[in-house]
């Protein structure tokens, strides 16, 4: 009687898939705030790179830049003062709650553009 052989190829395939899922989920969780309800985006695969500046606009209107709160009434001046000398090719990601007013988002977006940043990404689910 012949002994059965152990084939570990399916096991290795499953482990590689699980590793890929783990790597993607850790990367995505790095860029998402727990208190921000992002709008639904396209179904395409996101191309997330390491951002230099992360901007979060919460539901209550609080604006955070790299986890530091910025006043909205003079956001352009404050943002330009702190980040005006950064490399203008740096990535800027904006995560805005889907329930905020459009004018608030545009005020933040316009400030980033006026400061001179050219690579601005909008985060979605």
Notable features of this structure?
alpha/beta, elongated
Walk me through the topology.
Elements: H1 9-30, E1 53-57, E2 63-65, E3 68-70, H2 75-83, E4 91-96, H3 102-115, E5 119-122
Helix pairs in contact: 2-3
Give a nutshell description of this structure:
With about 120 residues, the chain is α/β, with parallel strands linked by helices. It has helices at about 10-30, 75-85, 100-115, and strands at about 55, 65, 70, 90-95, 120. It starts with 8 loop residues before the first helix and ends with a strand.
Describe this structure in words.
By secondary structure, this protein is an alpha/beta fold. The chain has a single domain (9-122), classed as 2-Layer Sandwich (Nucleotidyltransferase, domain 5), CATH 3.30.420.270. It contains 3 helices and 5 strands, in the order αβββαβαβ. Strand 2 (63-65) and strand 3 (68-70) form a beta hairpin. Helix 2 (75-83) packs parallel to helix 3. The longest helix has 22 residues, at 9-30. The chain is elongated. The mean pLDDT is 83.
């Amino acid at each position: 009687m012949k002994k059965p052989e152990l084939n570990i190829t399916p096991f290795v395939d499953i482990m590689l898939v699980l590793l890929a899922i783990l790597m993607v989920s850790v990367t995505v969780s790095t860029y998402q705030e727990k208190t921000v309800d992002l709008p639904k985006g396209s179904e395409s695969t996101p191309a997330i790179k390491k951002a230099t500046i992360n901007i979060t606009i919460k539901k209550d209107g609080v604006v955070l830049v790299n986890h530091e709160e910025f006043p909205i009434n003079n956001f352009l001046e404050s943002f330009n003062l702190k980040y005006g000398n950064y490399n203008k090719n740096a990535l800027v990601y904006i995560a805005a709650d889907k329930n905020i007013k459009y004018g608030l988002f545009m005020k933040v977006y316009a400030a980033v553009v006026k400061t001179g940043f050219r690579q601005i990404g909008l985060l979605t689910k």
